[in-house]
Design a protein that fits this description.
This protein is of the alpha+beta class. The chain has 18 helices and 21 strands. The two termini are 35 Å apart. The structure holds aspartic acid (ASP).
């Protein structure tokens, strides 16, 4: 029989009572975390979000009360009226803040019972994740999950307070809108009023925030929900939260300062003071030093040691003299056995475009001078692993003899590749990876042919290097036909390809020897700005240029003249903030002039009619006094995940979806009634799901 709450008022939360409360009369309410029945004495651990208090029902409390306590089970909801008593020294529980006291019950009210549980919130090791997601309300009763949600709240508050103090206003933008190009498929919402027409859920508030700048709001931010219909690889969520901001009359440095300020504020929630300003590195430097656009600086950078070899050495070693020779140092690996070195070859994979020299001592026997110089440049400690990655000579890109890989060696295993290319050490995928604007979701576009590329565009060589950092090692760039052309001292596509391969291998080594170097285990937060990204990426499938960030990104002012003549070499004013190999956010200075926006749309293969149809309103808005502006968006989920020390976004999102894009608790998505479909003017052609 359940009791009513009546007028009973809670006096304390379950984590509140201390020794100094001894003797007080209290009323506690909560869930039964555990019950221990010792016959004449029953212990109840009463739990709420603040902690646990031990409640005691002794035999002298009376038969009725004792009987009631006997009937209680885990997760029943009760109210306890009783008196706080100091525990005997021997029974003090030092593990909980209330461990010096217990509450001796005079009265119990059973407010609700519970079905037998699929799992107990009291257990630390929880069951499979599907069950956790299906019974999310039970999962969220676990203190760990509660703490994660509180952390999320604290982080959001810290960010809001900081931004507000800097003169930002939080402004909401619509959820029902039209397609916003961020490179993913849109979620569409059918209109009942306008049958056959659809809203799109925002992939980001990009155009609205730019419009707000046109409207003179000067500093906008929003903790905004974004929706991207992407294949659910790794730990990605189809709806996620961004800290989205935009500012007027700014250069990238102004955006960096604001982001550094709010990240500093966010990190104080875990008691860490992060040093600012963050280091900066151009995209080219990042590729040169780390082979990836989101460097993990907890491990040493790579170095180009080509200058250490005489030209004839390169010929003997079948090394392509046009490409860098990359030295990779992995700390504290120690001496490797022959078998372990063979494993490195397997990890590197069977590549025709790049060669691995994993046995430096052997190389040293034949090329002592070169290796001495390499050691001078790469500076390995005696117990560090030093390996070289070089380009295989173009006419000799067959398996080579000396350093040839075992025939049939697999490429880097997909799991390694996933960790390396697409996921941070912390397990998060990249935003930028999701880009490649318009590679999907632009059904109304004309297929672009080479003819529609900007007049005067050079023969467009697939710039494989652009994929650096976005591609898993499993899909390692293959033998490249791309050019070695360099603009100034910039990297050529083939440089980037080789450096990318080396960078992936550096990360794979970092993962493989993580327990030896220990660099990932510490609370070491290495933030970084990566700047000057390429403006365009070549889309090999569609054979056209895509915007590397999004099509509203301003080209680098210096590169305006080559925009049309050499799109592959043009840089943008786009930047990423990176932490320990994870991209936390991306942004850019925007195009604020209609003429330039139009050139970019054209470079992306959009005809004037199409520009008008898709972005007419925006091109028009740009003509009414649009100020220079720029901004950025950072993934809140990912930031909280890192702060929580977690490895999955699902741990810090209250109601996440599974990798198959299903909400297991609500059981969404679902079929809808024929009546609803009819109203929306929609005919569904796939058979209905059972049940
Ligand atoms: N809208 C962009 C994104 O969602 C960020 C930005 O450019 O501000 O990635």
């Amino acid at each position: 029989m359940l009791d009513f709450l009546g007028n009973l008022q809670r006096t304390h939360m379950c984590g509140a009572l201390r020794a100094s409360d001894a003797g007080s009369h209290v009323v506690l309410m909560g869930w039964i975390n555990r019950r221990r029945d010792l016959g004449n004495i029953i212990f109840l651990d009463l739990r709420d979000r603040t902690g646990i208090t031990q409640v005691v029902i002794t035999a002298d409390a009376g038969a009725e009360l004792h009987k009631k306590a006997e009937s209680l089970r885990s997760e029943y909801v009760i109210a306890v009226v009783g008196r706080v008593k100091l525990r005997d020294a021997a029974t003090i529980n030092k593990n909980i803040p209330t461990g010096e006291i217990e509450v001796v019950a005079d009265e119990l009210r059973l407010l609700n019972d519970s079905k037998p549980l699929p799992f107990s919130p009291a257990d630390n090791d929880v069951v499979n994740e599907e069950l956790r997601l299906k019974y999310r309300y039970l999962d969220l009763r676990r203190p760990e999950m509660y703490q994660n949600m509180v952390l999320r709240d604290r982080v959001a508050i810290a960010i809001r307070q900081y931004l507000t103090s800097q003169g930002f206003h939080e402004i909401e933008t619509p959820i029902l809108t039209r397609s916003t190009p961020e490179g993913a498929r849109d979620y569409l919402v059918p209109s009942r009023v306008h049958n056959g027409e659809f809203y799109a859920l925002p992939q980001s508030p990009q155009q609205f925030k730019q419009i707000l700048m046109i409207s003179g709001f000067d500093k906008y931010f929003q903790i905004a929900r974004c929706f991207r219909d992407e294949d659910q690889r790794a730990d990605r969520q189809l709806e996620f939260t961004q800290i989205d901001l935009e500012m007027t009359f700014v250069r990238p440095e102004n955006v960096y300062a604001i982001v550094e300020g709010f990240l500093k504020a966010a990190w104080t929630t875990i008691g860490v003071d992060i040093p600012t300003p963050f280091p900066r590195m151009t995209y080219d430097e990042a590729i040169r030093l780390y082979g990836i656009d989101k460097p993990d600086m907890r491990l040493p950078a790579m170095s180009d040691v080509k200058s250490c070899f005489a030209p004839e050495n390169l010929a003997t070693l079948n090394i392509d003299p046009d490409l860098p020779i990359v030295a990779i140092v992995t700390p504290k690996v120690g001496e490797l056995s022959r078998k372990e070195r063979d494993d490195l070859k397997l990890l590197f994979g069977d590549r025709k475009d790049a060669k691995l020299f994993e046995d430096i001592k052997r190389l040293e026997k034949s090329f002592p001078d070169a290796v001495a110089k390499i050691r001078d440049i790469a500076k390995p400690n005696p117990d560090d692993l030093l390996v070289l990655v070089a380009g295989a000579k173009a006419d000799n890109r067959q398996l080579t003899t000396d350093n040839s890989l075992p025939v049939g060696a697999p490429p880097l295993s997909p799991s390694v590749g996933d960790r390396v290319g697409n996921e941070s050490a912390a397990g998060a995928p990249s935003f930028r990876e999701a880009k490649g604007w318009d590679s999907v979701g632009s059904d109304n576009r004309q297929p672009t042919t080479d003819n529609s590329l900007p007049a005067g565009a050079p023969p467009l060589s697939p710039s494989v290097g652009d994929r650096v950092g976005n591609e898993s090692a499993a899909g390692a760039p293959s033998f490249s036909e791309s050019s070695t052309k360099r603009v100034g001292n910039r990297l050529s596509p083939r440089d980037r390809e080789l450096l990318g391969a080396a960078g992936q291998f550096r990360l794979a080594l970092g993962q493989k020897f993580a327990s030896k170097h220990g660099a990932f285990a510490q609370r070491d937060f290495r933030f970084l700005w990566v700047t000057d990204f390429p403006m365009f990426e070549w889309d090999e499938t569609e054979h056209r240029w895509n915007a590397a960030h999004h099509p509203f990104t301003s080209p680098h002012e210096e590169d305006m003249p080559i925009l049309e003549s050499d799109p592959g070499a043009a840089r943008s004013l786009a930047y990423d903030v990176v932490l320990n190999g994870t991209e936390l956010g991306s942004g850019s200075i925007r195009i604020h002039r209609q003429d330039i926006q139009s050139i970019i749309f054209k470079a992306l293969g959009m005809s004037p009619a199409e520009q008008e149809a898709r972005f007419g309103y925006f091109l028009e808005a740009l003509q009414y006094g649009t100020p220079p502006h720029g901004g950025i968006a950072l993934g809140l989920d990912r930031i909280v995940m890192i702060l929580a020390g977690g490895s999955s976004l699902r741990e810090v999102i209250p109601f996440p979806k599974t990798a198959k894009a299903i909400d297991l608790m609500m059981d969404a998505p679902t079929p809808v009634s024929d009546k609803q479909l009819k109203e929306l003017g929609i005919a569904v052609t796939v058979p209905k799901r059972d049940g």
